[in-house]
Design goal:
313 residues; alpha+beta; Jelly Rolls; Phage tail protein beta-alpha-beta fold; three-stranded mixed β-sheet; 5 helices; 20 strands; globular
């Protein structure tokens, strides 16, 4: 594949015909996908190094006790946000002296970004776009408690004596050491997917459930339902891939709005029922997704940058 054409595609400057040529080529084989990923990594590193050199003298060095890396697709780094929420004191009524101090931190992954966090016990957490976790700098002896709003994938360091507990929109997910994904942007659409190990879940209405690998529990019509994981590729969002599997464009639009923090107005209602299967890099952005959809469906769109809005006609 021509390197200049790949650069145009990655930069979002390719025509519809050129976009189709690149997409068809990528999907032909795993080798083509690997070549594309390697080229994209080189492209992103070049952009980052250029910005790094230009900003080197203006950005002071910063230290943090939290090991956090923000990534956008294969970029080396992006924006890091760590907020100290406050310090809580447990005070003995008979003794005004402080008995214990817990310092909490919050890490937020903004629209169009992902974050990777390593907690003090070695647990790995990947945060999807528009997601936040809150946790103590040092876990307590009895348990490892954190709070999630949004979506995260957890690879928990085993410790049978100190369970790891995720609190998310009223769900309480208790594990000893395992891998699982939690979607909890709002109370109506919560989901827990177990990839390895086991989890014990308490729902907002105090129902309990235990999951085995390959199982999930999710909210549906105000009920909590247990089932099988249908699309394992979905969890590749950790790699910077948004994977759609036979999804309606109506649902695609809702996910794009959530992931990128944009407003998308669809005047062409006919396309909403169409279904789509495919993969996109997070860093491709909304506009690249719309360009690819235009290859199979007739519609136009315009971008209102001032109001962070896309209008589909």
């Amino acid at each position: 594949m021509n390197a200049e054409l790949l650069d145009k595609y990655i930069a979002g400057n390719a025509s519809q015909e050129e976009t189709k040529e690149v997409v068809d080529w990528i999907e032909q084989s795993d080798e083509n996908m690997r070549e594309y990923m390697a080229h994209r990594k080189l492209y992103d590193i070049t952009l980052w190094r250029t910005k790094e050199i230009s900003d080197e003298e203006d950005v002071p060095a910063r230290k943090s006790t939290v090991r956090v890396v923000f990534t956008e697709s294969l970029k080396i780094a992006a924006i890091l946000i760590i907020a100290i929420l406050g310090t809580y004191y447990y005070i003995n009524n008979k003794n005004p002296k402080v008995k214990n101090v817990l310092t909490f931190q919050s890490v937020y992954s903004p629209s169009g970004q992902r974050a990777e966090v390593t907690l003090e016990d070695g647990t790995h957490v990947w945060l999807n776009a528009n997601s936040k976790i809150t946790y103590p700098s040092n876990f307590e002896k009895e348990h490892r408690n954190i709070t999630l709003q949004g979506e995260a994938y957890f690879k928990v360091t085993p410790n049978v004596h100190r369970p790891f507990i995720v609190n998310a929109q009223g769900f309480k997910i208790k594990v000893l050491g395992t891998e699982f994904n939690v979607v909890a942007y709002n109370k109506k659409d919560c989901e827990v997917d177990l990839l390895k190990g086991s989890v014990h879940i308490t729902t907002p209405d105090n129902q309990v459930a235990d999951l085995k690998p390959g199982e999930r529990i999710f909210s549906q019509n105000n009920l909590v339902v247990k089932g099988q994981i249908l699309h394992p590729d979905y969890f590749r969002w950790r790699e910077g891939l948004i994977c759609f599997d036979d999804i309606s464009i109506r649902d695609m639009v809702e996910k794009l709005k959530l992931y990128y923090g944009v407003n998308i107005k669809v005047n062409n209602k006919e396309i909403l029922s169409y279904r789509y299967t495919g993969k996109f890099w997070t860093s491709d952005g909304v506009e690249q997704v719309l360009r690819v959809l235009q290859l199979d469906h007739k519609f136009t769109y315009k971008r209102d940058e001032e109001n962070n809005k896309f209008i589909i006609n």
